[in-house]
Amino acid sequence: MAELAAHTSTTQACALLGWSRATHYRAQIPPAPRQDKPPRSAPPNALTDAEREQVLATLNSARFADKSVAQCWATLLDEGSYLCSMSTMHRLLRTAGQSRERRRQATHPPRAKPELLATAPGQVWSWDITKLRGPQRGVYYDLYVVLDIFSRYVVGWTVAAREDADIAKALIADAVAVHGAPGSVHADRGTSMTSKPVAQLLVDLGVARSHSRPHVSNDNPFSESAFKTLKYAPVFPDRFGCLADARAFCEAFFAYYNHDHRHSGLGLHTPASVHHGTAGEVRAQRAATLAAAYAANPTRFGHRRPTPPPLPTAAWINQPSREALIQNN
């Protein structure tokens, strides 16, 4: 700015640089020296050092250590003793670094994160219960669904008028009778999931139990995903007229879900195809169709030979990080 102003006027230099003249002249003024404010003198009614120590000693005594400031102040006042106001007590505690919850707090030990791996059907099942709206407000039906996390195949389901541990036990027992016992069964911590009838059934079958952490829906992702597919379907009604209507709808839906729904996590195969082992043949047929299309017109594929989506190799519930796997090994 100074070099340009030497060859022309300050006004023209500011106009060329898009600089305000007022800002230019203001920048030439040296900053005023900072004046530190004098320390504030203590008010005449302030507590003395001895009185402050007495207040802190009283608040930290065994009698008042676990009580709030309001409790301490009121108790002392009832006994005819006034040390200071409640705000002054809070200020003294804050200055001493004690302005926190004075009572003992409940501690919740960390829950172990469930980590389950399935590399084939029949290894890990997941089950859950969701609500279906009935004909009137406040009327709900309970949908129980058990699925295989590797194939996403629904191995058992039922709709009941209530949530009951015996219904869940019967459902799991029927699924085991048809498909065989899995290695593990995962569920959240609902009353039916942690009930004694279900737990005893799994113990008798030699099936390992796994539960989600409290309030962590991501620990049961496969069941939650299946429920979302159900409830976000265009044909899903807002309400069901009766229990028979809900059962009829679910029977048609799960038949479609198992045998017609192409799942993105399964390489766009149906759960039934992966569960019953026909997905390899279907993928080979897809590969032959794509190869024929490529041979007929390779330019449509950018001269890159197309391949069908890969088949699933593993299904995890809370897959550990690579660093954790390295440490465990």
Structure keywords:
329 residues; alpha/beta; two-stranded antiparallel ribbon; 41% helix; Transposase_IS3/IS150/IS904; Transpos_IS3; Transposase; RNaseH_sf
Dominant shape:
flat
**CATH classification class of the domain at 116-266:** Alpha Beta
Major pleated sheet: 5 strands, mixed
Number of strands: 7
Structural class: alpha/beta
Rg from alpha-carbon coordinates: 36 Å
Q: Indicate the proportion of strand residues.
A: 5-15%
What is the assigned CATH homologous superfamily of the domain at 116-266? Ribonuclease H-like superfamily/Ribonuclease H
- CATH topology name of the domain at 116-266: Nucleotidyltransferase, domain 5
CATH second-level architecture of the domain at 116-266: 2-Layer Sandwich
Termini gap: 66 Å
Helicity, as a percent range: 40-55%
Specify the number of helices.
Answer: 13
Mean pLDDT: 90
Order of helices and strands: HHHHHHEEEEHEHEHHHHEH
Please identify the oligomeric state.
Answer: single chain
Unreliable spans are none
Strand order in the sheet with the most strands: 4-3-2-5-6
InterPro entries: Integrase_cat-core, RNaseH-like_sf, RNaseH_sf, Transpos_IS3, Transposase_IS3/IS150/IS904
Protein name: Transposase
GO molecular function: nucleic acid binding
Organism: Blastococcus saxobsidens (strain DD2)
